[in-house]
Specification:
Blueprint lengths: L1 H7 L9 H10 L16 E3 L6 E5 L6 H14 L1 H6 L1 H7 L5 H13 L9 H11 E5 L14 H4 L1 H18 L3 E4 L8 H4 L1 E12 L4 E12 L2 E8 L12 H11 L3
Parallel strand pairs: 2-3, 2-4, 4-7
Antiparallel strand pairs: 1-3, 5-6, 6-7
Length: 256
């Protein structure tokens, strides 16, 4: 990938992640919303070619100690091994991610397991065998959420990333794609996603909270891939999803 050529190029000095710097300037991003320019880009993580479940996200997050560990692994192993074996070393390094851990609970239901893994170790083993996470914008940030609609207003900036995303989907050849992030609602046409059905699943019985999902498909070459878009992602605090309900929702969704 050309962006990794930028990253490894000595002439870029401390701003090797060149396109992250350009996006920060173009979008006038400040503070924690800025894309981190001295962190390697992360287009995808997971066992491409083997794992058949894909999760689309907006961009990779960043937390101090976890970011330092990722940088060390990237620098030691190179981008391919670091990111294609991400779920293998992530837990071994003592790192945590509610984002991935909760999705593993949901995914275990979707895959038809008898129960969800109770411990993080087993959850990351499940993800390592089954999940590919792909980010629309491959640059880390602390808190960028597109809350102000910047990327929607600046769609020309996204064109190359959308095309790159479609190439990565074709390369990975998944059977199902879960879509997380409000930005994707505005990009469905560009991605070739057609949605035809809306479902709701209770994810917290006590608080009467529900997860709304939109079912559709994406045509990549000759293959029609099932798509499932979340109205609110399962780690959302407002959703307050319980593990039992998440597992049950995944199980029921698999039959749709």
């Amino acid at each position: 990938m050309k962006e990794y050529e930028h990253w490894f190029s000595e002439k870029e000095g401390n701003r090797r992640c060149l396109n992250a710097a350009r996006l920060n300037s173009s979008l006038n991003l400040k503070g924690d919303a800025r894309f981190i320019e001295n962190m390697p880009p992360c287009f995808l993580v997971g066992n491409v070619g083997e794992s058949k479940t894909m999760l689309l996200s907006l961009n990779p997050g960043y937390k101090g100690e976890r970011g330092k560990k990722e940088y060390e692994v990237f620098d030691s192993l190179g981008w391919k091994k670091a990111y294609l074996t991400f779920f293998d070393w992530f837990f071994e390094k003592g790192l945590s991610s509610p984002y991935y851990s909760r999705f593993a609970v949901f995914l275990s239901g979707y895959l038809g397991l008898d129960s969800f893994p109770p411990h993080r170790k087993e959850r990351f083993e499940l993800l390592g065998k089954n999940l590919i996470n792909v980010d629309l914008i491959p640059y880390h940030s602390v808190s960028f959420k597109n809350s102000s609609g910047l990327l929607t207003k600046e769609k020309p900036l996204l064109e190359s990333y959308v095309e790159n995303l479609k190439e990565l989907i074709g390369l990975a050849n998944p059977n199902v794609i879960f879509i997380n992030g409000a930005i994707f609602k505005d990009l469905l046409t560009s991605l070739g996603v057609v949605e035809k059905k809306t479902l709701k699943f209770v994810v917290n019985k006590r608080l009467d909270r529900s997860l709304v999902v939109y079912l559709g498909h994406m045509q990549i070459g000759d293959k029609k891939i099932k798509t499932i878009r979340f109205a609110n992602f399962i780690t959302s605090k407002s959703l307050a999803a319980t593990n039992d309900c998440l597992f049950d929702a995944g199980f029921k969704l698999a039959s749709e």
